[in-house]
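Deliverable D4.2, example record:
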Amino acid sequence: MGGVKSQGSLVFGLDIGTRSIVGTVGYKADDGFHVLAQEIKEHESRAMLDGQIHDIGKVGNTILEVKKNLEERLGKQLGEVCIAAAGRVLRTVTVNVAEDFESEKEITDEDIYNLSMSGIEQAYTEFQSQNDTDMKFYCVGYTPVRYYLNGYQIGNLEGHKAKKISADLIATFLPDDVVDGLYKAVEHAGLHVANLTLEPIAAIQVAIPDKFRLLNLALVDVGAGTSDISITKDGSIIAYGMIPVAGDSLTDVIVQKCLVDFDMAEHIKRSLRTGEPEIEFTDIMGLPQKIKAAEISEALAPYINDMTAKVSDEIKRLNGDKPVSAVFVVGGGGMVPGYTEKLSESLGILKERVAIRGEDVMKDIIFEDKDAHKDSLMVTPIGICLSFYAQSNNFIFVSFNGERLKLYDNGHLSVSDAALQVAFPNEDLFPKRGKAITFTIGGKSRIVRGTEGESSQIIINGEPADLYTQIHSGDIIEVKPSTPGSDAAFKLGELPELKNPIKISVNGKIFEFPKKALVNGELQETFYEIKDGDDIKVNNFYTVEQITEFLDTPAAGDIKVNQTAAVLKTKVYEDFTLDYTIGSHNHKTEKNEKAADNSSDDSNGSSDESTNSDVNSEESTAKESGAAPAAGGVSFADLPDDDGTAAEMKEKMAEMAGSEDGEKTEEEKDEKPDLSIPVTVNANGRMITLTGKDNYVYVDVFDKLNFDLKAGNGRKIITKLNGKNAQYLEPIKDGDVIEVRWEEK
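Output generated by the structure prediction step:
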């Protein structure tokens, strides 16, 4: 039955009811729906209760009989069928779904269909988040309540131009056992489900035409096991509901009243519709009996009262706690005398506004089968056929790694949908990376990722596929999980920060020195494997000593960095100049070191003895007066004392001088290891290297500047550190910019 949606193609609809199965075959044409053949077959036993299949085999056999009879009458095979589910344990979700387009476009039927499919998916996601039971539910039908064009309500979107369309949509859900039972019974009869809908959705297709839906109406489909309800208002269906009480509950009363089997009780109940005063029947003893119709009606009255009260309460609940304007009743259970009158009383509306709908609503139905029934029993079966044209709502079955899987067919199912349904782990679908390494370099976090493994291997019906390959009913899907990649491995030398060497001019020639790095405080070679959590700092300098060792040229005599006296521990940066006298390896002595240290104390880079004498003399004078000299021989007594800082310095330096080991001999002092750390700063535009201490303060630069502290002539001294005002005792560090000048008047 491929292509059954085209005009004139046959549609086979099955109403699988609690009491009977009705098969209808027809086609839709311009003048209405044509019924070609109809077949009714009652269940031989109570294989269904309250709309639920209890014996799949027996129901399947009855479906098979209906199918064969229709095929004989039509002279053709039937392979696909449309079915409807009763609203047992019905759940509904109302959603608003929207779709934006890049630019204004004319809305097509496909756009509307895609909008509805998006709404169903959204409703399913929302329903799953609220489902607090262990049962699986499936969407068995949907109804657009209203459409919106660019935010404004409209009756039909098709043909209009819009940049945004949206809709309010009701999606209905039933438990898996209800849906699965229907599918298995149909498959037992050799049929494939072409469309699944809800019974009240099907019934309303016939019973309440679109032109009546502007009114606030209720449709009650009273079957054998359930009473399904739908509500219309403002041109749309606004709600669906169900109560699990219907015609069979009345039949059970007659069984007890007349002592008959269920089938005879059904005969008695139907005889009430004829209006005959007496009904003849045979009881379970085989004895012929007669009973007045009024006596049966009296016995049924309290049960009809209870049934209609429940229906009335459900109608009011669905309609915002108020009655509807009118009620249409379809189905065999609602044809029992007194049902419509009692329902009108319960709702509090005129009895004329509760009526059974039958042949009067089938004006657009052309019965080519002259033996077809035209009463309210046929409303739902014909509606099932018409629902096929209104919406395609189907499930497909596939095999996923050997597991039989049922999927809601939204028209574009792929392997990923099947994987999601069976909760196949995401990490087994996509390539897995090996473990990453996270470390810090220069205080900033960095990550090196592991390599990717192989993707999952997907086979559909023996052919290679991927996650986005479309799937169809009967497909055999095999998914081999992805594999993990290798863990991250990264050597220190691979860091881009270590790629470019440091260029330094040594004795007039440019040399390139590879950069070094400290890992967790320790110097490491380039082949070091970086570990997770390592803290890396790249040295962008070499000390003079490291340069001489790298070049294997020991320094002998004066050392100058950027034409400024330096020592072996002085730091040399990119584009600095280093000049020193190269000595032989056996001349690298303490004497050379001492000479280099002495030369660094001369601000002009010279080492004449007169300068050193002046410094020694000044130090001696400072000690005798109880005040310590500034580094390099500058007396703190010469510093301006506008804010008392100099006085404080004098006191602190005196304490420091007193705490030094003055009693030690020169020989003992020479034996003490040199722990000093050189610091290079920019002072008044010159690069100056301070040596001889493990830390330095601002005032230590004065001896290198040749700054005349007695030339103030009453002016205030301005001291800046990195552009900000500085105190004399403020600590300084490598790379600081220092400015010292007299205030201009």
